[in-house]
Amino acid sequence: MTFQYFLIFLFILLAIWFAWKYFDLRKQINQYAQALHRQNKFSGNFKELESLASAVHSLQLFFESEKENLNAENARLATVLEQLTDGVIIADADGRVQFANPAACKLFGVSNPVQQTIAQVVRNFQLIEAWRRCQQTRSIQIETVELPTRRQFLQLTAIPDEYESGSLLLAQDLTQVRRLETVRRDFISNVSHELRTPLASLKALTETLQNGALTDVEAGPRFLERIHTEVDSLTQMAQELLDLSRIESGQVELNFAPVSIKRLLNSAADRMKAQVERAGLKLSVNFSENLPNSFRADYARLEQVLVNLIHNAVKFTKSGGEISLFAESITGAVRIGVKDSGIGIPTESLNRIFERFYRVDSSRTGSGTGLGLSIAKHIIEAHNGKIWVESEEGRGSVFLFCNSKLK
Ligand SMILES: Nc1ncnc2c1ncn2[C@@H]1O[C@H](COP(=O)(O)OP(=O)(O)O)[C@@H](O)[C@H]1O
Ligand SMILES: [Mg+2]
Fold first, then answer.
1. Distance CA 286, CA 337 (A)
2. If you classify domain 178-248 with CATH, what class do you get?
3. Is the dihedral of CA 300, 306, 312, 315 positive or negative?
4. pLDDT band, very low/low/confident/very high, at 1 (cuts 50, 70, 90)
5. Which protein residue has the closest C-alpha to ligand 1 atom 10?
6. Residue 145 near residue 64, CB atoms below 8 Å
7. 178-248 and 257-402 agree in CATH topology
């Protein structure tokens, strides 16, 4: 009991001490304030405090606007990195990935590369070595590799990071560029090859003529006739090459106007009539009933396509066969076709015959450069349409085109 009384007594003593301290402190503050007031110093201090506060406030506004600018800049940078088709990877000094944009993930086929090592992400010895050299020499390293499993050409640029001791890796997919280079090389070698054959034969024919055949009444005109044919085929090839290059480089402007479908098919058939008859073939033109009168197209270019297709049909159909030219209406579009009862096209060649210079079998073709269908495809695609073929070897082919991509 006595201990409890003692505790209460101690508590009261402490309370009195705190109360006295509090009142004493208040008294001192009051005295200080009065003294300041008396010395007329307080108002001056107050003004200083006010200007300090306004300086702090404007500093705060400045920092807020700077922060907003930084945030906007960050967001812009993030969007650029997100949309960039080149891969960007930032790695620290130990080669641990700190950042990778979506393109980098896609190029290297990884889903979450952060905190993985460069070796784990890149998985190619030459590329890893390029990064290592960049780390050691602190200079930019460029390495191009082919990844056969992914049929990809990659170029990696490793740039040392000036602030951290890591590096920035820039990965570019050069597959498409390489493919275009190959196409260009193939094109040139194909053109030279196609030129060499008729030129060699022209040389042989003229030499034979020079060596006496010129005066031979029987052989002379025959050789001249062959020279004529070769020159014709060279002229046709030059024309087709020119057409192709003009169309591909976008130099050909299409003259869109309403085109009468019946007039288009009949005039193409008329132009080819003589050739068809000479080859011992029959040509018919058919229209479906609900066909619209006209559609918007470039008349001359579509006629060129049809003449090309009929010309092929004539070349690849044996005497006695039939060629049919038709137009039909399918929901919202017009489909035009050239059908023949000719030799047909093997299945494995079906998706290649629209390529430049592609010929199923040059020995069976005789004349021709393999450019006709590729020109036709360009013309139809410039009309926003689609061209395709259905064929069975030995049973004939039908080439169809449509003024809409969707059909
Ligand atoms: N109607 C057809 N019947 C069979 N094969 C065809 C037909 N049309 C085209 N082809 C095949 O497609 C190839 C490419 O045709 P094309 O580009 O017009 O070139 P070209 O007529 O100069 O040979 C032809 O060489 C031929 O092998
Ligand atoms: Mg042709």
1. 10
2. mainly alpha
3. negative
4. low
5. 312
6. no
7. no
360 in contact with ligand 1, CB cutoff 6 A:
yes
The Cα angle at residue 39 between residues 38 and 42, in degrees rounded to 5: 90
Q: Residue 53 and residue 395: Cα distance in Å, rounded?
A: 95
Report domain 84-173's class.
alpha beta
Among candidate residues 307, 241, 242, the one with its CA nearest the CA of residue 275: 307
> ∠377-285-367 over CA atoms, to 5°?
50
Ligand 2 (single-atom ion) residues, CB below 5 Å:
312, 372
Q: What separation in angstroms does the CA of 392 have from each of 234, 282, 313, 371, 373?
A: 31, 20, 14, 22, 18
Using alpha carbons only, what angle is made at residue 382 by residues 376 and 388, rounded to the nearest 5 degrees? 45
Place of tokens 């011992």: 280
The pLDDT confidence band at residue 25, using thresholds 50, 70 and 90, is confident
Q: If you take atom 19 of ligand 1, which residue's CA is the nearest one?
A: 370
- Cα–Cα distance for residue pair 361/370, rounded to 1 Å: 10
What would the pLDDT profile of 227-273 be if each residue is shown by its tens digit? 998 898 888 888 888 888 888 888 888 899 999 999 999 999 999 99
Domain ranges (residues) in the chain: 84-173, 178-248, 257-402
| CATH code reported for the domain at 257-402 | 3.30.565.10
Closest atom of ligand 1 relative to the 361 alpha carbon? 27
CA-nearest of 258, 263, 232, 372 to 310 is 372
Is 341 a pocket residue for ligand 1 (Cβ < 6 Å)?
A: no
CB of 312 sitting under 6 A from ligand 1:
yes
